[in-house]
Every structure is written in C-alpha cells, then in structure tokens.
C-alpha cells in the first residue's frame, strides 16, 4: 500500500454531503481561536523547528498572533502538566498543541518519557474537554526527528497546530 492510498481524498468530506444528514470535521479556520503551544526545551533544536512550523500554520489559518501563547517546559515529561494549566487556568485557551522530541538512546528512559508524555496529554484532553494535540516526535534517531521537523507540509508542528484547530472546531460543532 502506497502513501497515496493512505490519504483521505481531498473531496471525500464534501462528497458525503448528499449521503448523510451532517458531515462534521475538516474545518481548519483558526480565526477567533486562542491556541497555546507547549514546548519542550530538551532536544530544543528540534522543538524550535516544530514551533516554527506550528506558528506558520496558525498564521495561515487566521489565528491572531495575540491569541497564541507559547510555554516552555524542561522536557517532554512536563508537557501534560503545563497543557492542563493552559487548558484550565485563569485565561484558558481553546486548544493546546504539545511540541517536543523524544529520541531513543541507550537506556529505557525513552520508553518511560514517551509513553508517559502521550498518556498525560491524552488524559488532559479527556479530563478537560479541551483539545490537546500530540506534536511530540518519538523517533529512533536524530535524523528521523530532523526529517519530521523540516520546514514545509511535512513538519509535525504544523500537523499538531492543524489538529488543534480542527478538533476545536469539531467539538464546537458536535
């Protein structure tokens, strides 16, 4: 199976319009949304590239710069806690995207950090109802992390920002 066979056709959602009562999802307009980006300083060079991609996408989607907050934490393990505070604090946001990189090393540290980070991010969104996108790379090598954080459409920071917006819009429509 090739990559093209895995992608949803561009007109798929629109083609459902006559077949079902409502089609929910796919709204990528960020206008009026407050979005937070929680970023890990550990492997910060990769995170910085993910952040650049996320900020680029948010601007393209119409999110006002003043409605974007960026919070830096020491490492990926701390991302869920700051995501929780961003979602529920005194000035809550509409969605959070967590950005970082956990790269496999010579110890079991990778498995613990990556797994607990993912579980924590999931718990935050389920407990709060605020979308929290998982833009934390979990790679075997630095080269893989660098490839997934290159500028352009393949940047996983862009993908996380897009996911945050789409999930926010979808939850409002449901």
Describe the structure using short key phrases.
Rossmann fold; 4-stranded parallel β-sheet; globular
Order of helix and strand elements from N to C terminus: HHEHEHEHEHH
| CATH hierarchy: architecture | 3-Layer(aba) Sandwich
- The CATH superfamily bears the name Lumazine/riboflavin synthase
Indicate the overall shape.
Answer: globular
The biggest sheet amounts to:
4 strands, parallel
Structural class: alpha/beta
Determine the fraction of residues in helical runs and give it as a percent range.
40-55%
Q: With helices defined by DSSP (H or I, 4 residues minimum), what is the helix count?
A: 7
Sheet with most strands: strand arrangement: 2-1-3-4
Structure description:
By secondary structure, the chain is an alpha/beta fold. The protein has one domain (31-173): Rossmann fold, CATH 3.40.50. Helix content is 46%, strand content 17%. The protein is built from 7 helices and 4 strands. It has a 4-stranded parallel beta sheet with strand order 2-1-3-4, sandwiched between helices. Helix 3 crosses helix 7. The longest helix has 20 residues, at 109-128.
Compact summary:
The protein is α/β, with parallel strands linked by helices. It has one domain: 3-Layer(aba) Sandwich (Rossmann fold), CATH 3.40.50. 46% of the residues lie in helices and 17% in strands.
What's the structural blueprint in terms of helices and strands?
Layout: H1 3-6, H2 12-15, E1 35-40, H3 44-60, E2 68-73, H4 79-88, E3 95-103, H5 109-128, E4 132-139, H6 142-148, H7 156-173
Parallel strand pairs: 1-2, 1-3, 3-4
Helix pairs in contact: 3-7, 4-5
């Amino acid at each position: 199976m090739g990559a093209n066979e895995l992608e949803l056709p561009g007109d798929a959602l629109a083609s459902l319009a006559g077949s079902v009562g409502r089609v929910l999802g796919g709204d990528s307009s960020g206008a009026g949304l407050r979005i937070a980006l929680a970023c890990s300083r550990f492997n910060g060079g990769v995170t910085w590239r993910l952040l650049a991609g996320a900020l680029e996408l948010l601007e393209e989607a119409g999110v006002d710069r003043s409605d974007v907050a960026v919070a830096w934490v020491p490492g990926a393990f701390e991302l869920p806690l700051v995501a929780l505070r961003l979602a529920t604090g005194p000035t809550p946001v509409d969605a959070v995207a967590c950005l970082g990189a956990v790269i496999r090393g010579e110890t079991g540290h990778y498995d613990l950090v990556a797994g607990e980070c993912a579980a924590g991010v999931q718990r935050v969104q389920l407990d709060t109802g605020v979308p929290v996108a998982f833009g934390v790379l979990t790679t075997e090598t630095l080269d893989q992390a660098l490839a997934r954080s290159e500028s352009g459409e393949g940047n996983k920071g862009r993908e996380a920002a897009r996911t945050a917006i789409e999930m926010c819009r979808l939850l409002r429509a449901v």
